[in-house]
What we know:
Layout: H1 3-20, E1 25-28, E2 32-37, E3 49-54, H2 55-60, H3 66-79, E4 88-89
Antiparallel strand pairs: 1-2, 2-3, 3-4
Helix pairs in contact: 1-3
Amino acid sequence: MNRAVLINDMRRATGSILEARVPIRVRACRDGVVVEAPAGVATPLRRPVEARVTWARLNEARGPVLRPLVEELIAALRNGGPLPAGFTPSSISKSRGARRLH
């Protein structure tokens, strides 16, 4: 997948998130791209989840990867169904910004 296709895929994934009005975040990291959803009032999740798509997988892809992944997650959050394949408990709660103040 070339850079223009990847950027378009990320834009469409972001558009799906904005349209659905769900707190999902798509961000680039050193290893690839992370799609994450927090736990809380706005989602039926008890723990935050994330899926990582490696740069290698994105380079090998012949079509959109991120938008279908985001749309599957949106459907699972709305319907209360099982999470799509590839989503695991997230490290969001372990980040410095998410620490509880006592």
